[in-house]
Design brief:
Blueprint (H helix, E strand, L loop, with lengths): L12 H4 L7 H12 L3 H8 L3 H9 L6 H11 L4 H11 L9 H22 L5 H14 L5 H24 L3 H17 L4 H16 L3 H13 L5 H18 L2 H17 L18 H11 L3 H13 L8 H17 L3 H18 L2 H14 L6 H15 L1
Helix pairs in contact: 2-4, 2-8, 3-4, 5-6, 7-9, 8-9, 9-10, 9-11, 10-11, 11-12, 11-13, 12-13, 13-14, 13-15, 14-15, 15-16, 16-17, 17-18, 17-19, 18-20, 19-20
């Protein structure tokens, strides 16, 4: 069995019911993302062109019977994709949303699934699916009425917000800002203004990555003071401010922001009915965040000690590949900063294959910081080769 197939299985009738009904392109993109196949890989397996795959997933083209059969065979779907394509040809989409409840519930499950895939594989396997579903929701929104209309626009906003994050992970800040602004607009149509406050946190993160620390702190403060900001958003803003102050070398302001983060995080009440923006605060680890700030303050020894203590408590480390890798590279950077290059290189050597797989711009930025510290130390030929490989990967 191909490694990409492990755990994926074939598409059974019961598995199919978890996918959004009525749109071949979205189902195709979601199945491809589940397998971890690129467009090129899937096109090779189905013996179709990459352009055909992109057109199908974006909804620009409907599948012919032959193409539907080829896609079905590639996934081992047992005729379900062929049936889905046939249903799409037999009945045109209604211009009105008759019953939005199942549509919203189905796409909410898909959003949760795509987020899990994105955390483990990076943006390239989920972006097409996110855009396809967003197109369907924004097409449906104007035809819905009352609460159903608000629910569809709010869900479109959530898809847009995560698409913006994936654009940032793909090193495209302009596209990240565009999708974030769309999330604000569609969130307002859904009756939710909190996304406007969270958008300022996202913009602070983008400013931080382009090296504009003052702008990052200012945007974080605007987010915290936004009239629609709730405890989750204020916690996100405090975390971003703490990291900004650390980058500036202001330990006192960093400590105050970390205390605000802890205070706001303690106020968070998990409520599935409340729109959720950004990573879940309750899943965050304050000690890892503090260690990251110590690293930015160039206090390498306390940072290394904090990272080591939290990694010994394996349950305290985030479960997804992206977060695990990011904090592992930060730990390696702290170890390099205290001269423990052997230990640092051991961590990075294990981590490089994961970094190549998830292809995250934020993780590559962390890897660049490791290279900067490691180059200040006397290294063996093997370590130099690893540092050079890390530098090449950090560039992207």
């Amino acid at each position: 069995m191909d490694p990409a197939d492990s755990g994926a299985g074939t598409v059974s009738a019961s598995a199919g019911t978890r996918l959004p009904p009525g749109d071949f392109g979205v189902v195709l993109a979601t199945l491809r993302a589940r397998r971890g196949w690129s467009v090129r890989e899937f096109a090779r397996r189905a013996n179709v062109s990459e352009g055909q795959v992109c057109n199908l997933e974006s909804g620009l083209r409907n599948p012919t019977p032959a193409v539907a059969a080829a896609c079905d065979a590639a996934f081992g779907a047992g005729g379900e994709l062929v049936e889905l394509a046939g249903a799409g040809r037999r009945g045109a989409r209604s211009e009105a949303v008759v019953e939005a409840g199942p549509v919203v519930a189905g796409y909410e499950r898909v959003l949760w699934e795509l987020k899990n895939i994105g955390r483990s594989t990076g943006p390239r396997f989920v972006t097409a699916s996110m855009k396809s579903i967003t197109r369907i929701l924004t097409d449906a929104g104007p035809h819905a009425v009352g609460e159903q209309r608000a629910e569809i626009w709010l869900l479109a906003s959530r898809f847009a917000e995560y698409t913006g994050w994936m654009a940032q992970e793909a090193a495209d800040p302009a596209e990240a800002l565009r999708w974030t602004n769309l999330a604000v607009r569609w969130g307002a149509l859904g009756g939710d203004e909190t996304v406007a406050a969270y958008a300022l946190v996202r913009k602070a993160f983008i400013a931080q990555h382009r090296g504009d620390t003052c702008a990052a702190i200012g945007l974080a403060e605007q987010a915290a003071g936004h009239p629609a900001a709730n405890p989750v958003i204020r916690a996100h803003a405090a975390r971003r401010a703490a990291q900004g102050h650390a980058r500036r070398g202001d330990a006192g302001a960093c400590r105050e922001a970390l205390e605000r983060f802890g205070s706001h995080a303690a106020e968070v009440v998990t409520d599935d009915r409340t729109p959720h923006w950004g990573p879940r605060i309750e899943n965050g680890n304050p000690r890892l965040i503090e260690a990251s700030c110590m690293l930015s303050l160039r206090r390498f020894e306390p940072a290394a000690d904090l990272f080591a203590a939290e990694h010994r408590r394996r349950s305290a480390v985030p479960a997804d590949s992206n977060s695990q890798t990011r904090f592992a590279v930060r730990q390696a950077t702290a170890l390099a900063g205290v001269g423990r290059l052997d230990d640092a290189c051991q961590i990075v050597e294990v981590t490089l294959p994961v970094i190549r797989r998830i292809d995250s711009a934020t993780v590559r930025a962390e890897l660049g910081r490791f290279v900067e510290q490691a180059r200040c130390r006397r290294a063996s030929p093997g370590q130099l080769a690893l540092i050079d490989a890390s530098a090449a990967l950090a560039i992207g």
